[in-house]
């Protein structure tokens, strides 16, 4: 009885310890940036990044949250753990990024740093998608704390040292999060998972997941353009916009094509329609022209459906 009681205390105690640690570290090292400091008569310069940040924030907590609800027996846990992991990751990423870029000195937070913290949360949530129903909250928490550090170092090497262009995070967010999640899934692999009958969707869970897809689909141009500047930001919005619409059309067409009855597969619609936004991310701010964005989105949608139809079965990820 005592051992069971102690086991129940592990997660809440760890969460409280982590949050208290965040209190201390934020108090010692984190401050407002110049735009958040009080000005004469309370006036401050306007910041156009606020609207973009809100779009990205909705994607993290609403888009990803609903998208994870496709499993019939894991809806509440998916949405709840999505909220918990994102909240922990945002704080931890703020600290890790600040220490990495400023050493042990005090650093400031701004709208831009909030966006980058949301990006780190997106990375963790992408990894979470490969582990739905396979891990405990405690395991997910440990994974998030480790992944944020690896993600920050990987991004620092790629973006700062190697000067890699990845404005929308196709490599450092989406690909990294996917491979990290698959790696954790392999480490935690259990033969019992393959025999599980719970890893399937039902009508209402698919509807909730589709709501998440639509939120992500609508706000993806903001995600890809959030860190771009001036004309590059404008191009990122345009390119992502056209890549997404082309991807959507091709996804529906390909889904019907690979189905023996010519019907649409909800799994394809929920996920492959977003592939255009991911694919265009690396080059979203570049001059690839609208027709180039349409081509990239179309190819991404086609390959994503083919991957879900044939490759996923071979990997036996959701069997």
UniProtKB/TrEMBL annotation:
Keywords: Membrane, Transmembrane, Transmembrane helix. One of its GO terms (molecular function) is ammonium channel activity. The keyword Transmembrane helix applies. GO terms for cellular component: plasma membrane. InterPro entries: Ammonium/urea_transptr, NH4_transpt_AmtB-like_dom, RhesusRHD. It is found in: Membrane. It is a multi-pass membrane protein. Residues 45-315 form the Ammonium transporter AmtB-like domain. Signal peptide: none annotated. GO terms for biological process: ammonium homeostasis. The chain crosses the membrane at residues 12-30, 50-71, 83-101, 107-133, 140-165, 201-220, 240-259, 295-318. PANTHER family: AMMONIUM TRANSPORTER (PTHR11730), RH50, ISOFORM D (PTHR11730:SF60). Belongs to the ammonium transporter (TC 2.A.49) family. Rh subfamily. This is Ammonium transporter AmtB-like domain-containing protein.
């Amino acid at each position: 009885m005592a051992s069971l009681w102690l086991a129940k205390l592990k997660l809440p105690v760890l969460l409280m310890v982590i949050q208290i640690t965040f209190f201390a570290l934020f108090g010692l090292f984190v401050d407002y940036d110049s735009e958040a400091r009080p000005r004469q008569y309370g006036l401050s310069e306007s910041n156009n990044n606020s609207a973009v940040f809100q779009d990205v924030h909705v994607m993290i907590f609403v888009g990803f949250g609903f998208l994870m609800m496709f499993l019939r027996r894991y809806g509440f846990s998916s949405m709840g753990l999505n909220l918990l992991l994102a909240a922990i990751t945002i704080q931890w990423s703020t600290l890790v990024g600040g220490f990495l870029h400023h050493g042990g000195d005090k650093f400031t937070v701004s709208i831009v740093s909030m966006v980058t913290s949301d990006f780190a949360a997106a990375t963790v949530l992408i990894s979470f998608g490969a582990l739905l129903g396979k891990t405990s909250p405690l395991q997910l928490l440990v994974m998030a704390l480790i992944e944020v550090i690896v993600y920050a170092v990987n991004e620092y090497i790629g973006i700062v040292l190697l000067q890699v262009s990845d404005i929308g995070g196709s490599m450092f967010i989406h690909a990294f999060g996917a491979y990290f999640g698959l790696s954790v899934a392999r480490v935690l692999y259990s033969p019992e998972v393959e025999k599980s009958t719970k890893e399937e969707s039902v009508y209402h869970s698919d509807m909730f997941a589709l709501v998440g897809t639509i939120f992500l689909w609508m706000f993806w141009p903001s995600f890809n353009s959030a860190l771009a500047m001036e004309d590059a930001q404008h191009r990122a919005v345009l390119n992502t916009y056209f890549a997404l619409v082309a991807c959507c059309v091709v996804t529906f067409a390909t889904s019907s094509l690979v189905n023996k009855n010519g019907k649409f597969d909800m799994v394809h619609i929920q996920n492959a329609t977003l592939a255009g936004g991911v694919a265009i991310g690396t080059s979203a701010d570049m001059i690839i022209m609208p027709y180039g964005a349409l081509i990239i989105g179309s190819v991404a949608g086609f390959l994503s459906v083919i991957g879900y139809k044939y490759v996923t079965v071979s990997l036996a990820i959701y069997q």
